[in-house]
Amino acid sequence: MPLIGRDRTLFKLFGVPIKANVSWLFLVALVVVTLAKGYFPPRLGPGLPWHVYWGLAVVGAMALFASLIVHELSHSLVARSTGMSVSGITLFIFGGVSQLEDEPPTAASEFFMAVVGPLSSVVLGSAFLVTWLVGAYLQWSAAALALLGCLSFMNFLLAAFNSLPAFPLDGGRVLRSILWGVTADLRLATHVAVQIGSIFGLGLIMFGIFLLLHRVVISGMWLMVVGFFLRQAALGSLQMVIMREHLEGEKVRRFMTTDLVTVARDMSVQEFVDGYVFQHRFNYYPVVDEQGLLVGLVSARAPRAVEQGRWPHTAVGSVMSPTEPSMILDPDTDAVDALSALRLHDERRVVIVQNGRPVGIVSLRDLLGFLALKIDLEPRRRPVR
Ligand SMILES: [Zn+2]
User: Fold this and answer.
1) CA-to-CA distance for 274 and 292, rounded, in angstroms?
2) 233/95 same-domain check
3) Domain count across the chain
4) Are residues 282 and 228 in the same domain?
5) Ligand 1 mean position, distance from CA 116 (Å)
6) What is the CATH number of the domain that holds 324?
7) 42 and 143: one domain?
8) Rounded to the nearest whole angstrom, what is the distance from the C-alpha of residue 83 to the centroid of ligand 1?
9) Ligand 1 mean position to 245 CA, how many Å?
């Protein structure tokens, strides 16, 4: 999902990295302000010192995000137990999302992975409700009861919203998995689920406009943005399914760029700029050692990191990005795996390496260009699963 900026890892739970996108800070602020200004004062009475409302709001927000992480973690753990790899959970402006490295392998695995999220929220909501009932019986403080009431309500709300049958919400994934299981046709199931998801997104946008016209500004705008986001996500999932269908079975060697120019590690930056950057005008150059083996990738802009006067005395090796496993692929890699590599690691290109030597480069653009040509020239040969 394209979000603003990079995600930062906060901590790990059961080996799953919990990350936050910068847009999440906006949601944190919104939740804290809503609790401190709108939720607690009417329940506790207005005359308390300000730090009571704000303190409770911060505790409430932390417990809410902990609940959200439990919800997402349940998805991630079930996904991992069915053999999918999970790259983490990301908190962002609309809540949280589990990042799966791959689509679910079977309808049953998608069903269980999706259904466990709302279930875990219902369990949490019930636990807070029971604690609230006990607290009310034992006459706990109004602050504790207000906090428990909020947490219970929000967890039930989270379960209810996510259960809507609008793909890619959990309910929509459950719907897709059932259709997929019944028809054995992932493409058809995705089409139907995406249509419903996109109609639902449109409904949210319309309802948001309706609220705006009635001067309910914040909620109206929020609903419009969520609706728009849902529609985009639904259509994006459909594109992924269509792409995978066309790319499956294709080898990277069929569309990699082979006219690559390699640079020696001990070449000076000056020589690199004069003899390569201005000559060939590629964005990236694989860097090789004395034996011609790949040791890194250097961008045409990398020399900027060094003062120009030092270019003749600085080796390319000291301004390159050293080779990482996520940066290289074999020419026989399936295009679908190349797509995941390009998409998930935010890396715009991977080097194709055979016996340690660079033989090609693939960017997301190459892959999309190949896909567009293939759809025009070779309409689907295989029957739809
Ligand atoms: Zn969920």
Assistant:
1) 21
2) yes
3) 2
4) no
5) 8
6) 3.10.580.10
7) yes
8) 19
9) 26
Residue 382 lies in a domain: no
Domain ends where: 222, 247, 272? 247
Which two tokens mark 49? 């010192």
Q: Using the mean position of ligand 1's atoms as its centre, give its distance from the Cα of residue 157 in Å.
A: 12
Question: Could you tell me the distance, in angstroms and rounded to a whole number, from the CA of residue 75 to the centre of ligand 1?
Answer: 7
The pLDDT of residue 68 is 93
Answer whether residue 384 is part of any domain: no
Range(s) of the domain holding residue 294 = 252-377
pLDDT tens for each residue of 128-163: 999 999 999 998 988 899 999 999 999 999 999 899
116 and 13 housed in the same domain: yes
Nearest of 207, 177, 210, 170 to residue 74 by alpha carbon: 170
Residue 338, pLDDT score: 81
pLDDT at 88 > cutoff 80: yes
Which residues are paired to 88 by β-bridges? 99
pLDDT in tens, 167-199: 888 999 999 999 999 998 888 898 899 889 889
What DSSP character marks residue 287? E
DSSP 90-128: EEETTEEEEEESS--SSHHHHHHHHHHHHHHHHHHHHHH
30 Cα to the center of ligand 1, angstroms: 21
How far is ligand 1, taken at its centre, from the CA of residue 76, in Å? 10
C-alpha 165 to ligand 1 mean position (Å):
12
| Confidence at 383, pLDDT banded by 50, 70, 90 | very low
Residue 35 Cα, ligand 1 centroid: separation in angstroms? 23
Ligand 1 center–CA 173 separation, angstroms:
9
Residues 277-289 have pLDDT tens digits of: 988 888 889 999 9
d(CA 54, CA 77) in angstroms, rounded, equals: 34
Residue 243 and residue 256 share a domain? no
Are the C-beta atoms of residues 123 and 70 closer than 8 Å to each other? no
In this prediction, residues 245-259 reach a mean pLDDT of 82
Residues 190, 275, single domain; the answer is no
| Ligand 1 centroid from CA 36, angstroms | 27
**Alpha-carbon gap, residue 43 to 33, rounded angstroms:** 15
Q: Give the residue from 231, 247, 263 where a domain finishes.
A: 247
- For residue 68, report the distance from its CA to the centre of ligand 1, in Å: 9
* Span from the CA of 4 to the centroid of ligand 1 (angstroms): 21
Centre of ligand 1 to C-alpha 101, Å, is 16
Q: What is the mean pLDDT of residues 99-104?
A: 77
Give the three-state DSSP class for 329: strand
